[in-house]
Amino acid sequence: MNYPDFPTSKKILDRLGPEFVNAYIKAVDAAREDYKSLQTWQPDWLPSYAKRTIACFIHDRIWYHLCSQIAESEQTTITDKDPTREIRIGLGLRLRIKRHTYDDKISNVPTQTVIDYFENAMPTFDGMEEVCLALGYYWIKDQHAIGEPALSFHNRFNEPVWSVKLKTDEEASVGYVSWPGEVPELPDMDINSIVAEFKEEKES
């Protein structure tokens, strides 16, 4: 059984690749325009919408624009079975679209399913390692607007290890630039002592 080393943002971005990252940036940009169209179409309706309604609308538009770009990729598996929407890239990368606050928290009801998804600190068996990521966007609360596309990795639900603002960088031809958040120091674990204590309790 393996206790995971937290992956860096650079390693994850390299595994995702610039093609996927750019596709997601385009999806957020397109959803931003869709949201502006909604605001223009019926501006008097917006004040009556619940926050959840707006969040769901934006999520739906990002999901549509992203999946229409990546559906043909052999490395991509798309799951769209209510209430779960998830994208798998290759082996071991799982992504779900989540709204981010500017302190890198996830705007999500902490259901057991959500909590389980973000349990990245759980040990795994060889060959079964998975990294669960939050792919989303920053929400500009005071403007009721979609901010930068975002990618974050959490130790547990709403315990961010790092976050990345995604931007297209055509001149560098890499598809993204990033800034990592602070990486917390993890406590050392003496597995041998834990096993020894377990054996003593079992034999007593």
General description of the model:
The chain has 204 residues and is α+β, with helices and mostly antiparallel strands. The chain has 4 helices and 6 strands; from the N terminus they run ααβββαβββα. The protein has helices at 9-41, 51-70, 112-117, 191-203, and strands spanning 76-81, 84-89, 93-100, 131-140, 145-156, 159-165. It has a 6-stranded mixed sheet. Helix 1 (9-41) packs across helix 2 (51-70). The longest helix has 33 residues, at 9-41. The protein is globular.
Structural class: alpha+beta
Coarse morphology:
globular
Radius of gyration: 19 Å
Unreliable spans are 171-204
Number of helices: 4
* Subunit arrangement of the protein: single chain
How many strands in all? 6
- pLDDT averaged residue by residue: 79
**Main sheet, how many strands, which sense, barrel?**
6 strands, mixed
- SSE run: HHEEEHEEEH
Q: Would you summarize the structure shown here?
A:
The chain is α+β, with helices and mostly antiparallel strands and 204 residues long. It is built from four helices and six strands, in the order ααβββαβββα.
